[in-house]
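Form 7-S
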Amino acid sequence: MSDKKTVNAVQLDANMQVETSDNSLQWHSPMEKPFQVAGFGWLEEERRYRRLPAEPAWELPLAVDLLANCTTGGQIRFTTDAVSLSVKVRLTGAADMYHMPATGQCGFDCYIGGPGEQIYYGTTTYNHQLTEYESVLFTDMSREQRVITLNFPLYQGVDEVLIGLDPEAQITAPPAYDHNHKIIVYGTSITQGGCASRPGMSYTNILSRRFNVEFLNLGFSGNGKGEPELAHLLAEIQDPACLILDYEANCVSTELLQETLPNFISIYREKHPLTPILVISRITHAKEYFDVQMAKDRADRKRISIQAVEERRERNDANIYFCDGSLLLGENAQECTVDGSHPTDLGFLRMADGLTPILRQILG
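Output:
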């Protein structure tokens, strides 16, 4: 008869236990001023945490329509002298991914500091089997002004989130962006943030801490395939600073990329002839070290991306650029993913490090 005991680390380690809020907090909707919610292109019209319009002019693939409810890239920004900060969250579903922590899929994380000075402070803790939770982010801080950024969950929807602050807390608007133009990133599950351990570690959120502009994350897990309907829809977003196309990894064939990429660019260019466009080829997959055909397919598709960019440049489109995604993970790239494909926090940090100088050059 076995005498083995089940190990429950949460019970054994006090640092892992869920802290509960006190009853004196005042709860605020981030939909109301002076809070600012960023990362949702249609929020002002629709008042919902969704990345695409509920009734778009162009028909969406069903999977894209569902994934648009995932709140990746969303941010709540405000300035406060609060000594305590908690959140109440009502999700559209529970954590259910085997290779991604619930903190990344369904959690919020908190950064403190103004533009270019944001420092990670903490992540929501909760019972990951629940779809509603209340979580303490900090208590007993000194009474001084702080700029707060809360990053939304990467792989789940949020029906409601409330910000709990101590009753004496003052709330003012966050620092303004450098301008009202937006960086739009269209792509795959990697773009969406799979499989970061917490929201702030997706590569678009890392970049948002380096560039004081709004980012719109339009990554769709398994379903960023370059459909023309998505090109038309993205072209409706006003004031684009840059369009990043990072969807090669979801192309099921080399032929599909060859068909969709030039067409996607052409559709977007009809409305935005001068907006910078950055085309990124996909990052390496660990299995390429053992699968010759997989490595060849990636090389072939990279050539298609390069060709699409060069052909536009030959037609006097000077604002289109190419980034070799196979270089982004750097040395020991195979150690930067969860499953050979989806980056860890280290992988996302390396991606952001590689993209930062390119974006600086493009954005001037």
